[in-house]
Each structure stands twice: as structure tokens, then as C-alpha cells.
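F.,

This is the one I mentioned.
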């Protein structure tokens, strides 16, 4: 599906703000139900919302830098051109998935990133932008977010140095 909206128009219309990992976002949903700390995995301080959802937009040239979350995150494709989602398992296996609307070409409308996996994303060449949604349950909290550092990731995954360099800031 083609749209005549530009990335800048979507940023304004959807009220998106710069995201620490790259791109633009706005939280669209935060459950009023609370998950108590006692029901969360060890290491979680405090309670969490039962679930959250955001809009997330990457323009051509933008990257969602490698990061990981304590909980699963579901990516949903909405508008624009296809996006490459890169996922690195704790064992160092890297996979690339294409989110987009061309199902005949193997693109996916959704992809789950498992908890504890490093991941990043970028619009594929020819995509002016990619607009996706990201859903996390229990809900997203910055305490559960870790932005990857190039030197640490390269030390953990030496065979993935080029990919890590491409998707980290430092």
C-alpha cells in the first residue's frame, strides 16, 4: 500500500518524538493493569504495566541501534517501505527479518523479538521511511532497556563485528 504522506508529516501528525535508540516514537497505550514485582522475573525492581504499545518511525538513513529488553517485543508493520529487523541471540546467532506488506516476497507483518536478544532495525534501500508499532508485555520500562555498546558487543560476538559496527553509535 502506497501512501502520499512523508516521514516529516507522519512525525507531526502522530506527535512523534526522538527515541534514544534512534528514530521517532510515541507511546500509544499503557495498560492500567499493574504486574506486581513479585510476579516479575528476578532482577526487576518495582511493578510494571501489564503492556505498552508505541508507534515507531525510521526514516531512510535512520537506525534503531542495537539494544535489548527484559521482555518480548512484538513489531507490527504499518506504513512506508520495508524494514530490516536484525536479531542477535544470546548465543551470537544473527538473523535478519524483513517487515513489510509484500507477503509474496517473504516480508512479514509481525515479528516477535524474544526477551534478552539484541536487536536493531533500519529501512531497506528505496524505503523513504518505515512506520511500525512495538508492543511489550509486561510493559516497557527504561529499567528493562539496555542500549548496546560497540566494544562490549564485539567482545561478546567477535564474528559479528561488521554488523555490530553498522548498528551501534560508538
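My design for it:
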Amino acid at each position: 500500500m502506497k501512501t502520499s504522506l512523508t516521514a516529516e508529516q507522519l512525525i507531526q501528525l502522530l506527535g512523534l518524538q526522538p527515541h534514544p535508540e534512534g528514530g521517532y516514537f510515541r507511546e500509544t497505550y499503557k495498560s492500567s493493569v499493574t504486574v506486581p514485582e513479585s510476579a516479575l522475573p528476578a532482577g526487576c525492581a518495582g511493578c510494571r504495566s501489564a503492556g505498552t504499545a508505541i508507534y515507531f518511525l525510521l526514516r531512510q538513513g535512520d537506525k534503531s541501534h542495537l539494544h535489548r529488553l527484559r521482555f518480548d517485543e512484538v513489531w507490527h508493520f504499518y506504513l512506508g517501505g520495508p524494514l530490516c529487523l536484525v536479531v542477535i541471540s544470546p548465543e551470537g546467532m544473527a538473523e535478519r527479518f524483513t517487515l513489510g506488506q509484500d507477503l509474496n516476497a517473504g516480508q512479514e507483518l509481525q515479528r516477535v523479538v524474544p526477551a534478552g536478544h539484541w536487536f536493531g532495525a533500519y529501512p531497506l534501500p528505496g524505503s523513504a521511511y518505515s512506520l511500525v508499532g512495538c508492543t511489550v508485555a509486561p510493559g516497557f520500562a527504561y529499567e528493562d532497556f539496555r542500549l548496546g555498546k560497540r566494544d562490549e558487543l564485539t567482545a561478546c560476538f567477535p564474528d559479528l563485528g561488521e554488523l555490530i559496527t553498522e548498528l551501534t553509535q560508538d
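The two ends are 36 Å apart (CA to CA).

Talk soon.
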